[in-house]
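<instruction>
Derive structure tokens from the sequence

<record> Sequence and structure tokens follow
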Amino acid sequence: MKTLSRSLAAGLAAAAFTTIAASTIASGATLDTVRERGFVNCGVGENFPGFFAPDASGKWSGLDVDFCRALSAAVFAAPDKVKYLPATPAARFAQLQSGQVDLLSRSVTWTMSRDAGLGLGFAGVTFFDGQGFMVRKALGAKSAKDLDGATVCTQTGTTTELNLADYFRANGLKYTPVVFETTDQVIAAYEAQRCDVYTTDKSTLAARLTKLKDPAAHMVLPETISKAANGPVVRQGDGQWANIVRWTLNALIAAEELGITSANVEQVRSTTKDPEARRLLGADGELGKLMGLDKAWAYNVIKSVGNYGELYERNLGPKGAVPIPRDGLNRLWSKGGLLFAPSFQ
């Protein structure tokens, strides 16, 4: 009986291993699929100027869009091998899980339930954010704690719903949620005064405030009620693809740390004696081979789109679609922020 039990246990273990291995193999060919297809399927949001937004001709731009261009450069040595597929917050994870997109690059907030419960893998942080509240100045609120009894517009399928409930419950406040699927529906309801408050990440509030019919009639309250680490997301089970996405982001940040830009990358590659820079740019070593890429993959990224600072300046700087001062967590660690890249060794 003991022998039978051991045999049965061994058989079940072998079957489980086979199932896991098969699943891993099935989901572990993203790079091959992308190369065979000839482009990266990048999941973005609906329309969020500064991060992801199409123009009148359908051309996408923004910080998250530029990250997909960087990924294209890493894989194809060209930044334009990307197809952008927009989705609402409620649909985005199904897009990724089903294989419709190769990654999400659209202000997805890193949480434990998403990381551990939805089969998602967060590759890093492209933007640190936090949730806030927009109100009409005529409401007379000076603080989020003045919002007792308010009606609050927000978007379904986001972390803002739970953060909102947590904040009001913790502060003994009552509210009535008014929930919509798309951002445009939320904005329209807020402008039509169907709710007193609009809540989402503060970067989104900054972007939307400038687009309201009368921006001067509205204000963002001072409180930040959550911390949001936003960045690219992939499916779990494909370590190679996750590494490519993760280290493409690290290359953008490391390049800024090292002072390497799209303008000087060729000169730095040929003249620098800095060991880190030489490994990053493929002048020494074969780090790209560890991920199935060319040795010049990071050089191609920086040459094509620049470093992280250039991405930020282009999209969120004074001349960007939505200026957001880079004066907080989104600075490099060496300048008091949280952005840093592990070593290229």
About this structure: The chain has 13 helices and 14 strands. The chain has two domains: 30-128+230-335, 131-226. The radius of gyration is 22 Å. The mean pLDDT is 91.
